[in-house]
Amino acid sequence: MEDANETVVRSAAELAERIEALPTTGERCLAAIAGPPGSGKSTLAEAVVAALVARGNDAVLMPMDGFHLDNRLLEPRGLLPRKGAPETFDFGGFATAIRRVREEASVILPVFDRTREIAIAGAAEIRPSTRIVVVEGNYLCLDEAPWRGLAEYWDFSVFLDVPMDELERRLIDRWLSHGFEPDAARAKALGNDIPNAKRVKRSVGAVDLILSQ
Asked: 157-175 pLDDT, tens per residue?
């Protein structure tokens, strides 16, 4: 039986080949990998970038998580318990950054530090030599305003589709791995992650490829 790592490696190699085969436009290529929390999009996106680099491409990963709103903004809005939902991101800043990545030679970006749950400004750079940017995030292909406006920037888009029962299992395991007791881990997953996952799966826009995981 093929294990999960083998599946990721095979999928990453196939996606890298498809991205390489895209028509050359003279602009930087942007590929979006989207999916609900727990779908494995971050792992797959990292593997795709590694495969592209191994094939001689100057490719980098751009996670959406650097555009999380800080807790100091979320708390007075009553959104802290929903951190990770679409409305808890700086969409305007993210959309502007995506446009700049498309049009400008060098772009400085924030990076999300998961250990401290904060975004760090000026922590990553898209260099002039970079030709392919793989963007990953939950809401890159969300068919809701204003997120659906991102579709015009993607040269190639992928959505990872995972059954809800499997997402629930993975998300509870994630919180367990962070040191939460079983009841608390289940409450964390069902109270925030799973509602976000259902929203993503319910409102998928047009994409180039759906991968069932």
From this structure: 999 999 999 999 999 999 9
